[in-house]
Amino acid sequence: MDKVSFGFEEVSPDEKTERVGAVFSRVARRYDLMNDLMSGGLHRPWKDLFVRRVRPRAGETILDMAGGTGDIAFRLARGGARVMVADINADMLAVGEERAKRRGIQGLAWSVQNAEALGFADASFDAYTIAFGIRNVTHIDRALVEAHRVLKIGGRFFCLEFSTTTWPGFARLYDAYSLNVVPKLGKAVARDEESYRYLVESIRRFPPMARFRAMIETAGFTQTKAEPILGGLVAIHSGWKV
């Protein structure tokens, strides 16, 4: 049987799907707090920049995949777009729905969905977004094909994801911090060291920017682009369906 990566381990596809689901169920309630601690709050301006690149407009419909706690969807909704927030994990969606209700945010729908087999018709959305989620998908190539399928002609794909920084000194510092400090933060704050060890390891196993851009093109997208942040520690990937 083919193996896929779960952090630094090699496991069966079914086991990865199950274990990733368990990770996010465990961390759902403290996920945004841990994002602040792990990134020093930088995930917020990264997400703001990401949504500016998407340029959500009134009247269009956007699928925010792996949208979980709603961080991207809330930003998209400010532009007047109708947002379908989808996630494979119902616990993450429940947190997002509660947050939206508390903030009085309108124009959102919520749906449990597997990125590899979406339950939406062809050409349903004007844009597809996924932020810090695609590296957790078991078969990334299948998720990209599905993203292409559900977009309308002229639709745009945007992905925000960790990558590999090309700044040598910074890369060494970040490796030391992420592999040694982040799991301890997870233990102290979320009482879950292993989940955060997986999240850090999953970043190391994600394809470099050029290879992931090639995967997006293979799925059928054109005019693809990778915009590095902090030398590629994070990147905004994009493409169009034409």
Features:
single chain; 242 residues; alpha/beta; Rossmann fold; seven-stranded mixed sheet; two-stranded antiparallel sheet; 9 strands; 47% helix; 23% strand; globular
Explain what you see.
This protein is of the alpha/beta class. It has a single domain, classed as Vaccinia Virus protein VP39 (Rossmann fold). It is 47% helix and 23% strand. It is built from ten helices and nine strands. The strands form two sheets. A seven-stranded mixed beta sheet has the order 5-4-3-6-7-9-8, sandwiched between helices. It has a two-stranded antiparallel ribbon with strand order 1-2. Helix 5 links the parallel strand 4 and strand 5 (108-112). Helix 8 (182-189) packs antiparallel against helix 9 (193-205). The N and C termini lie far apart (36 Å). The mean pLDDT is 90.
Concise overview:
This protein has helices at residues 13-27, 31-39, 43-54, 71-78, 90-103, 140-150, 168-180, 182-189, 193-205, 209-218, and strands at 4-6, 9-11, 61-65, 82-87, 108-112, 125-131, 151-162, 222-229, 234-240. The chain is an alpha/beta fold.
